[in-house]
């Protein structure tokens, strides 16, 4: 019995002594050469960016021109981008779903008519949103799937695909923050934003 215990202790010591870690020896010359090569490669890949500076007087002239253009557009009878954007309906979804509900189909059709008439000169950004249930990664993916489904519906009904962009905010852009079922249902949506 003693011999079994002694042999077990000796075996354990041999195994543990073989597992000791040693500090790695770093060859400083190779490290310097590699870092110099990396710096040269980065310098080759990064092209200089040309920037244009605008003086404050030019900036004020540009701002005045923009303001005049916007006011002339508003006075000529066309609605502003913000006013048109308010007419779009948000599309709501069931819990953990990304297909357009049957009760939302008429809202999608109304949004298509608005996109092809009054808002035809603007691009459309679809913003997918989720409630707070699920991980961040899952909700960002679900929000993107919801935006993609609405995009497919818009394109199927005649909106040009090159006018539509999508983004997912996951659960980070709630329209309601109460801890109720009704509130969570309001956060499962796709919103329309117009871009010039």
UniProtKB/TrEMBL annotation:
SUPFAM superfamilies, sorted: OmpA-like
Superkingdom, natural source: Bacteria
Residue ranges, compositional bias (Low complexity): 48-61
Q: Where in the cell is it found?
A: Cell outer membrane
Question: How is this protein situated with respect to the membrane?
Answer: Lipid-anchor
One Pfam family named in its UniProt record:
OmpA
Q: Name one GO cellular component term.
A: cell outer membrane
> Where primarily located?
membrane
One GO-annotated biological process of the protein: cell division
Is Membrane tagged as a keyword?
A: yes
The name this protein carries in UniProt is Peptidoglycan-associated lipoprotein
